[in-house]
Amino acid sequence: MANFGGHAIPGSFFLLYGFWLTVKYVLQHYWRTNQPKGRQTLPPIFKRLDYIEGGFQIFAAFIGIMVEQFVVDGPHAHLYNDGGWIKLMNWQHSTMYLFFGISGIALILSTKFQLVPRGVGRFGLSLALFVEGFLFYYHVHNRPLLDAHIHTLLLVAVFGGSASIMLEMFIRDNIILELFGSCMFILQGSWFYQIGFVLYSPSGVEWNLTEHANVMFVTMCFCWHLAVALLLVTSTAVVVWLTVVQFSARGRDIEIGMRNTSSELTSQKALLQESDEE
Amino acid sequence: MANFGGHAIPGSFFLLYGFWLTVKYVLQHYWRTNQPKGRQTLPPIFKRLDYIEGGFQIFAAFIGIMVEQFVVDGPHAHLYNDGGWIKLMNWQHSTMYLFFGISGIALILSTKFQLVPRGVGRFGLSLALFVEGFLFYYHVHNRPLLDAHIHTLLLVAVFGGSASIMLEMFIRDNIILELFGSCMFILQGSWFYQIGFVLYSPSGVEWNLTEHANVMFVTMCFCWHLAVALLLVTSTAVVVWLTVVQFSARGRDIEIGMRNTSSELTSQKALLQESDEE
Amino acid sequence: MANFGGHAIPGSFFLLYGFWLTVKYVLQHYWRTNQPKGRQTLPPIFKRLDYIEGGFQIFAAFIGIMVEQFVVDGPHAHLYNDGGWIKLMNWQHSTMYLFFGISGIALILSTKFQLVPRGVGRFGLSLALFVEGFLFYYHVHNRPLLDAHIHTLLLVAVFGGSASIMLEMFIRDNIILELFGSCMFILQGSWFYQIGFVLYSPSGVEWNLTEHANVMFVTMCFCWHLAVALLLVTSTAVVVWLTVVQFSARGRDIEIGMRNTSSELTSQKALLQESDEE
Amino acid sequence: MANFGGHAIPGSFFLLYGFWLTVKYVLQHYWRTNQPKGRQTLPPIFKRLDYIEGGFQIFAAFIGIMVEQFVVDGPHAHLYNDGGWIKLMNWQHSTMYLFFGISGIALILSTKFQLVPRGVGRFGLSLALFVEGFLFYYHVHNRPLLDAHIHTLLLVAVFGGSASIMLEMFIRDNIILELFGSCMFILQGSWFYQIGFVLYSPSGVEWNLTEHANVMFVTMCFCWHLAVALLLVTSTAVVVWLTVVQFSARGRDIEIGMRNTSSELTSQKALLQESDEE
């Protein structure tokens, strides 16, 4: 939707999702590094997190499609009439949401059924981002210079995230790759806000959409967003990590639900020895 | 051939081939996940499937070349006369078929002779798709906007399939990658139909080939085809899987031809234990 | 050099080199598949082949540079005078040869000194192809349509070969990848001839450099060259393989220089067992 | 900064950094190849080298930002006034430096804290190069032919380095990849000098920025820089290697700080045996 809110809402969702992924991946990484070598199965809490994540994706996609279709000036599920295609922009956005919904279904299925390979969730997410970028790519033709450029920069975050998450299908449990994916979501979210501020400024400032200096500034600004996204992911990861460490030190009872008490001492020892050696 | 049938025929073949690959890969995956760790060799039935697949590719390629050359307005195996090149379009299509024929030969050779590495069949298929995309890429120059765009979208499916199948050469037995390849074939097939409906509509509707809204709709429509292809592959995979599971439960005799009875109990136990642990 | 000979000479070299690589890789593959699992070191004869290959690359590069510089209308090692740059085309060709010379040096060093990693030879060759493609890429600007197109197609073979050989640095001893690299050299060689025939036809035929049908034919013709290159590599590989097998069956004495007699029986047995199982 | 010095200073830094990386990687490679198989932890001296490297990056980035902001005609930390954006060029350069600073911080953190994965340092460096290339890419629009081309060639070195270092995240301890990364830094450094000489020649020669022959020469010249960079990296690596070997032969006492004396003999034997076999 071509107004500030129409960019702020998806922006907020992507920001939120980026933070969610950061927290999840850090928790999983903590778990992996504190396990004895032989064990690889994640405790049930991570399954529950994945159900929540998948359910949320499906829910958000559903709401998104409904809103795009049935807002006052929406197409109301009509695609074509005598005058031609109806509100193709809204239909394109609905299509994007659809693939995030599919991603949610894939995540839930791969969590629920052991037979569905683990990578299916990632594959769905990567595909959803690819479709988003693919539609945006043809979105931006025939627009003023700055408008096209600012959307092109969005594609860097979208395709960067898609490629990174696709790679995770083959290179599992690489924390750098996982957090880079989260970072791309946060970058995308904050850039949606930036687009809103530039094209539909709530304070009423109008940008000259054809001035080259504006294009140069916006390019640089994208790098600043990237730096901030890196900082946010790093801070979140540190806070989550320290919290978990403190938590598991204060009351080890909580962890009992998460891992076998019998193997705990061994794992602690193994970890200590590793840190002595290195 | 520039009519509806000329797009429906290859479309049907690609659709069919996509389903064939889905079934084959799911059967192989079932086999792999039900084997004890030590054994890796596939039972002879898969060899027979590969012979059929390769033979079919060679046969279809041969028929395709013959039809392209000897239809009424075809070049009849003449390439050049005083007036210049004769029916280059038909020659290009023949070239595409040729490489699918080569792919069939490669598949049969790699199945027949142990010395030929297993990946040769995939390599041939990937190359055939690459050549198809390569020729289409130069096909679409100097055409009306919508015509060029709708063929460009086809290239996404073609090169996507080619890249995915090329990857399978190095990452073996990854079911997600394999089904993604099948999905790209189905997408290609259904998109061929879509091209036929848009450019040579059998119901006589004429699309405005230069209207931007049509381009936007077609782009979005491609994503819908992708969603449907994903759904078809998933449904087929589920149906095949459930059929095989039920089959092997009802009468285990069939399987005797497929695997060693002595190792069967062990493998069943191993599987059960794995599912208990996870 | 802008005449038929100037394209036939490098074409012949690339054809020859493609066949050489095919033979070498098939011999190495035969050796690997006939070795017991534990042993990995190649017999000294392969070292000698690499010395010859490297020496030949250096020699050919030296001759190439000399010819480009000191032909009658060459720059005679002068780069700049009052009138501007002298014969930049010849200088660019000399630069291409230089990198093939560097590739030869890299191959000899990596063969001679154990400390130099094995992949350095491949890296050098991949880089030489990259530089060739890189220079050709800027070569083709401002030329007639067909001239630019036919050189662009050459780039497909050049960059395809460069990428494939770069991959070999990381994925060692993959016979498909190795033969694909050889195939790209043969394709490049035969395409050089094709360029010579089209642009400087020895029979005096003049092609219309701006006609679109010619571009379409040339694109298709490139695919035919690829098919022929695949056929040539396959035939060569089969002939070499059969020769080696027959050779080692008739008189095993020759092999004694190539491998340890003590381990021979074991390896034969291991191979037989493998083929029984599979 | 648009003068000779503004290109010579970053050029010198990149040259220096390229040599530093070469020396570091060769030392690490020497260490790895002289270790018994079981041990993998690097001695403390390499940690110290990484601290120095990271500290240097942060320091250089800080100085760079300060200079760009507070030179006489700089923006003095003002970004916008009534007349529009202030000195965006300086702001863009500051942004590039910022990411090299972030890279330094990442390197120090990954060296200091065992919990931070080793690859984070490489990731930061790769990202810094990517951002540099990203900003340069939009830098070069709307410039004269030669100016745009000479900066585009810089991008080859920048993105080549970024991709190579990104690969190092996944393919660890590959000396060819590591030295290729160093080579790209040296190439970038020497090419900065070349840009300075061409666009702001200190001897006052003015190049015709629109002549096609100049573009052709500059393209070829880039390849010569690459050849020289390869030569420099190779020579440096050989000199460092020979020095280390001689050093460790003359007085083995120095090494005691670096490796366990008890395991030394074993490792020497293992190495000798390996070289006998191969």
Automatic annotation (TrEMBL), chains A, B, C, D:
Residues annotated as signal peptide: none
- Provide the protein's localization: Membrane
| Broad class of the protein's primary localization | membrane
Presence of the UniProt keyword Electron transport in the record:
no
Question: Which PANTHER family does this UniProt record tie to the protein?
Answer: EPIDIDYMAL MEMBRANE PROTEIN E9-RELATED (PTHR16007), TRANSMEMBRANE PROTEIN 45B (PTHR16007:SF59)
Against InterPro entries, the record matches this protein to: DUF716 (IPR006904), TMEM45 (IPR042127)
| UniProt keyword annotations, A-Z | Membrane, Transmembrane, Transmembrane helix
Membrane topology annotation: Multi-pass membrane protein
Tell me any Pfam family this protein matches.
DUF716
Question: Could you identify this protein by its name?
Answer: Transmembrane protein 45B
For this UniProt entry, which segments traverse the membrane? Answer: 12-31, 51-71, 91-111, 123-140, 146-167, 179-200, 215-242
Q: Name one GO cellular component term.
A: membrane
Regarding protein family, the annotation reads: Belongs to the TMEM45 family.
Q: Give the organism the record lists.
A: Pundamilia nyererei
Gene that this polypeptide is encoded by: tmem45b
Q: What's the source species' lineage?
A: Eukaryota, Metazoa, Chordata, Craniata, Vertebrata
